[in-house]
Amino acid sequence: MARPEQQKPRWTEEEDRVLFECKSRNDNLPWPVIAKLAGLSRSGKSCRERWKNHLHPNVKRGNFSQEEDETIIRLHSSHGNSWAFIADRLPGRTDNAVKNRWNQHLKNKLIGRGIDHQNIPDPQSSTGDQPHATQLFDFNHNIDPNANSGSIPTPGYLPSDDETIHHSFGGDYFGFEPTQLFDFNHNIDPYASSGSIPTPVSASQEIANPWSTSQLAYPEFQRGCLPSDDETIHHSFGGDYFGFEPTQLFDFNHNIDPNASSGSIPTPVSASQEIANPWSTSQLAYPEFQKGYLPSDDETIHHSFGGNSFEF
DNA sequence: AACCTCAGCAACCGCCGGATG
DNA sequence: GCATCCGGCGGTTGCTGAGGT
């Protein structure tokens, strides 16, 4: 099977330049077409990989930090060889780079320490029986009224973390709905008794004006409301406060001004300003909450969401 | 200086699923 | 429903360069 020529010819600077320009000019075309237009003797697939792993502006080079290594180890223990998933949580790192890092460094390191790298306890999960990582986070929806306080959460549900959740949202449980964005006070039974667990309502029952204070299950989160409880919200979301906009669903990193200074109140942007790719890490006001992000900050996220990890 | 080893990186390959006609 | 195309993904392996002998 040996080929007389080099089997894996490296990309030259000239090829990179041509591909970069061609891709930049024809961003919407399929890769096979781009490869053809570029006039390179490379397949569309090769061009795509070269772009994704090297030429893309967001690609981060250089050594992995200890934090990145720890994140890889932790996520690998809970998600296995889902390199793309892990890479999503390491801004700028590609799945290929993460895979190489694991296969050629971290795995051997753990083996050398006598650690079973396939069974590393996840600090954010006591059982591994955690909500599946393809769900959006939605307070007040799909709440399990039968969840036992302090019990191990069943998939899709959260236990209350007294320190935080109880503090924040009345000691109730919060579930996850895969098709909804994050939305306080929407689809909540307006007639639920105070102190009870809010009951999700059907579409037909949906509150006409979800921002009408009198009908909110959690009136404290009404339009424009800022969290009043520093201890909790500050704790929960990395020290930043979030405001609410009545015409928008609450969506981490979507419609949020990417240029907002850290610690300031995020500014919703208009439709015309809307970030083209809301999950593009470089454009996120809160890149740590990007799509598919698995929190790495125990102190904060672990605390906030009952010790589990979630995707948004 | 020549050779060897090994870690790190890069590229290819096959499989799979979604979109489209 | 089926075939085809395309992109995404994970596994594998070749290439490179640094360091050791």
UniProtKB/TrEMBL annotation:
Residues 143-152 have a biased composition (Polar residues). Residues 142-161 are annotated as: Disordered. Gene3D superfamilies: Homeodomain-like. CDD domains: SANT. SMART domains: SANT (SM00717). Residues 3-55, 56-106 form the Myb-like domain. It comes from the Eukaryota. Keywords: DNA-binding, Nucleus, Repeat, Transcription, Transcription regulation. It holds the Pfam family Myb_DNA-binding. It is found in: Nucleus. Residues 3-55, 56-110 form the HTH myb-type domain. GO terms for molecular function: DNA binding. SUPFAM superfamilies: Homeodomain-like. GO terms for cellular component: nucleus. InterPro entries: Homeodomain-like_sf, Myb_dom, Plant_SW-associated_TFs, SANT/Myb. This is Transcription factor MYB3. The lineage of its organism: Eukaryota, Viridiplantae, Streptophyta, Embryophyta, Tracheophyta.
